[in-house]
Amino acid sequence: MIRSTTIATLAAGGLAFLAGCQTVPPAPERTVRDHLAAVGRELPPARGQLPLLGAESQPSDYVRFALLKHPAVFAAYSEWRAAVESIAPARALPDPQITFQADIAGTVTSLMPGVLFDLMVPGKRAAMAREATAGSEVAYREYVGTVVRTAADVRKAWIELAFIEGTIRLREASLTALGQSADIAAAEYSTGRGVTTLEGQIQTAGEADRIRSEIATLADRFHAARVQFKSALGLAPADPDPFWPRFPLAPTVLLPEEELWRRVQASNPDLAKLRAMVEMAVADEEVARQSRVPDFSAGLMADVRQTPWLWRPTATVTLPVWRGKIAGQIAAARARREASAANVDAERLTMAAELARVLYMVREADRMITFIDATALPNIERTVASAEAAIQSGMGGTGMIPEARLMAATRRIERLNALRERELAVTGLLLMTTEIATGAGSLLPETALSTRQ
Q1: With contact defined as beta carbons under 8 Å apart, do 449 and 32 qualify?
Q2: pLDDT at residue number 5
Q3: Beta carbons within 10 angstroms of residue 184's beta carbon
Q4: For the chain, how many structural domains are there in total?
Q5: Cα gap 236→67, rounded to integer Å
Q6: CB contact at 8 A, 399 and 185
Q7: Distance of CA 114 to the CA centre of its chain
Q8: Cα–Cα dist 266/261, whole Å
Q9: Cα 117–119–122 angle (5° rounding)?
Q10: What is the rounded CA–CA span in Å between residue 70 and residue 148?
């Protein structure tokens, strides 16, 4: 009875010891975990209050609201967290095994409990840990990409709102100008003065009806744009409306092309992700090379039926004799590494072409805006001034003034549309870096993980 109690106690103590075995994570893993925890303290369910959106809110406040609220950001963070949590199992030893053996010949002649450990050389476990760590960096870069895309969606939705709102105001001004022109034409026609015809009045009325229809269409588009803006913020259509932004749609100042290209290469999320995949492929190749090293297992059993106890040590070793299989694993890993490196070069070429395309769109819009501001609108203003001078001298009628104002409203709509296209192109340019997420704060710990440039 004493011996059985002793065995049970030793077994329980051994199990408790094995269950409590923990290893101290290496420094790179601790750094990754620290930054993961820092981001996790900002996101749900641990996040604090969402930024209050009001009349004093800046664009960065709306961006941060979206990053804290949008489920896509939290989903990407959870994927990153899962990758980080996979590092510890990758570097850990296999679980020990409790073994049991008995010899029975009519009665139990031997009873041999024991424990078996699978041993792996440190180099192999270190290589597997590096591969898992590189995989967590890939997941982190995907998280960064999600943050940047969410911020870009907020900016695009805001640009659409500002454009539609401004267009509606200009169309209403055009409708007012048409009304004035129609009133003047009707007065001149009824008195027999001027050169206005009934056909001209009908055309003016038809143009007014067309603009009213366009305003109604813009109102529907404005409603859809508000729903889109709420969605970009992470709000459902049934959620209370946020304070709608009132930022003026103005051209964004851009850095020189050389500086933009430098920043794209340094912080583009897609490039960073591909570089992280190169690091993971390098670690994967090292894991494949380590498959040439044998693995061991060691155990100890005790025959508790014997007096004194009979101890039976056991040991096994793997024999990596299938050289063709090992060579294939190494060759496949090397090919994946080479493919990852080539993908980085290909993405860099794509980024260069995209940068040139976006800058062309920006410059094209700038030329249109400059033409309207420097030529078209001043010409219309001079036309209005000439018409007013002709009226004062009795040499002209008043019908030209509303028509000129209608032309000016049309030109301003063209300018607003060019500005919209420019800012959408700038959004695409900012999307190529992490700078668009100006409200991210600690949600983008860029120093968390190192990326080879």
Answers
A1: yes
A2: 47
A3: 20
A4: 1
A5: 15
A6: yes
A7: 52
A8: 9
A9: 145
A10: 12
Range list of β-strands (E), 55-186: 97-105, 107-119
Task: Identify the residue whose tokens are 């020990």.
Answer: 96
The CATH number of residue 149's host domain is 1.20.1600.10
Instruction: Reduce the DSSP state of residue 317 to 3 states and report it.
Output: strand
Could you list the residue range(s) of the whole structural domain that residue 91 is in?
28-49+56-436
Nearest CA-CA partner of 214 in 158, 166, 167, 161: 167
Instruction: Give the pair of three-digit tokens for residue 316.
Output: 């096994």
Tell me: pLDDT of 47 over 90.
Answer: no
How confident is the model over 139-162, as pLDDT tens digits?
999 999 999 999 999 999 999 999
Contact of 240 with 69, CB cutoff 8 Å: no
pLDDT band at 94 (very low <50, low <70, confident <90, very high): confident
Q: Are 174 and 215 in contact (CB under 8 A)?
A: no
Is residue 4 included in any domain, yes or no?
no
Mean pLDDT of 250-276: 90
In this structure, is residue 90 part of a structural domain?
Answer: yes
User: Does residue 15 lie in a domain region?
Assistant: no
Decide if 443 is inside a domain: no
What's the farthest any 2 CA atoms get from each other in the chain? 134
Strands (E) located in 286-429: 296-303, 310-317
**What are the helix (H) ranges across 41-121?**
59-69, 71-85, 87-91
Sequence-ordered strand ranges (E) for 107-233? 107-119
pLDDT score at 90: 85
Contact (CB, 8 A) for 230 and 242 = yes
Residues 6+ apart with CB under 8 A from 171: 211, 214, 215, 218, 409, 413
End-to-end, the C-alpha distance of the chain in Å comes to 68
SS3 112: strand
Long-range contact set of residues 18-21: C-beta below 8 Å, sequence gap at least 24 = 18/96
- Return d(Cα 155, Cα 152) in angstroms, integer: 5
**Higher-pLDDT residue of 193, 417:** 417
Q: What is the mean pLDDT of residues 217-243?
A: 93
